[in-house]
């Protein structure tokens, strides 16, 4: 039973962590090497694509998606998709995909004359499923070693923790005050005998 | 347009559940506090009247109207995010 309990707990927290890691914004310091657009046909990976641009027909099977190619400060490459999140999840309310593509194209640079940028994004890159993180914004920074403090994430995580803690404490208090005494009363009644319950299930 | 309508309708329903739960909880807390106050100060009024008067005062209070923040805060946050993401 202990194994089952701990498996459930570990799986639960892993899901919470994965969800937050996918959804919350992160920054990459990188150099934009190129931008392009390509037709995509979401299949098994359709969870990891957003939807068609806000205002356009969202019922079609395939569509063109903007991409931003980068080389990061640690020398690895990263490819971002650039899609509207619109009014759907996650709540970035991003409608300016085309503007972002224009900014990214403007910030292109070569290894010889690098222009470093901070790319805010959410999502994961997975080569096996052709999954790309979605770029939210791009802005020029001083150099590859800039330190960006994730204030938004700190704020969101603190708020989440505070809300869940507040509910948890109240639930504990409620259980101690109302549910436990009620269960005890039921137990006492069964022990005392004479109840409907005992007649059917109790030892005679 | 459909996505926007979906967000607003689902958001409204979820926030309404939160609003109602919070209202009931806040009222219950207020009732508990009034009962405790009656026990402590022993005013000349009967307990029920004292608590009812207190709750009536609470119904008209600013504190209760603050719970409307359940709707206002997320909506404001949404507007701020839209501005920051797209136009800032």
Automatic annotation (TrEMBL), chain B:
Segments traversing the membrane: 6-25, 66-85
Superkingdom classification of source: Bacteria
Keyword line: Membrane, Transmembrane, Transmembrane helix
Record has Transmembrane helix as a keyword: yes
Protein name: Cation/multidrug efflux pump
Organism: Thalassococcus lentus
Taxonomic classification: Bacteria, Pseudomonadati, Pseudomonadota, Alphaproteobacteria, Rhodobacterales
